[in-house]
Amino acid sequence: MIIVTGASKGLGAAIVNRLEKKGIKTLSLARKVNNLNTYSISCDVSDYEQVKSVSQIIKKKHINVTGLINAAGVASMNLAIMTPNSITQKLIQVNLIGTIYCCQLFAPLMIKNKGGRIINFSTIAVALGLKGESVYVASKAGVEGFSRSFAREMSDFNINVNCLVPGPIDTDLIKGVNKSVIEKLIKTQIIPKKFNTDDVSDLVELLLDNKSKSLSGQVLNIGGI
Fold first, then answer.
1. Which domains does the chain have, with CATH numbers?
2. What is the value of pTM for the model shown?
3. Which residue is catalytic, options 39, 48, 101, 136?
4. Does 136 qualify as catalytic in the annotation?
């Protein structure tokens, strides 16, 4: 079974939908799971005790975990000096700490099963150092660094860890961003087009497949930069 965080909407929901259509069982984690059709558990990834509780439920139910996709994330665009402390804390806690919590508590389940795949998510804003996104960039840059190092730590356990970096895709994260900004970002990509959740799901599916067994510790920019 593949654990997918942030599964109630956007990228997480799209990934769950793709995997389920392929016959791959998923466990959806989200703060609100009332309308989810898949096997799901309510969980705020920024809360260590909630993530720990999910791991304990998985152990009790003897669920065979083969992968983790950390798709939960939040964004906020503002100058660092204008960013309220509450927003700073939320960005770091959900994007970075939440990813770390899930890796810390769910990776042992894969170690027990002698292998697995972990996919984390960053943003094109890290590589470009986008103005007005410094706190958001800090949270995602941390995810990239963590993913590289964690991949080395997991290599002895046959667990591959990679980080996908989407450019602008049609999810709630970019709804409030000016279209001209989005167009400018797209032009910086080697493949200058707006990608969608299906494009990302294609790569998720590949990274979960045994065909990608030789790939780990990589930060992969969708569209190229």
1. 2-214 (3.40.50.720)
2. 0.95
3. 136
4. yes
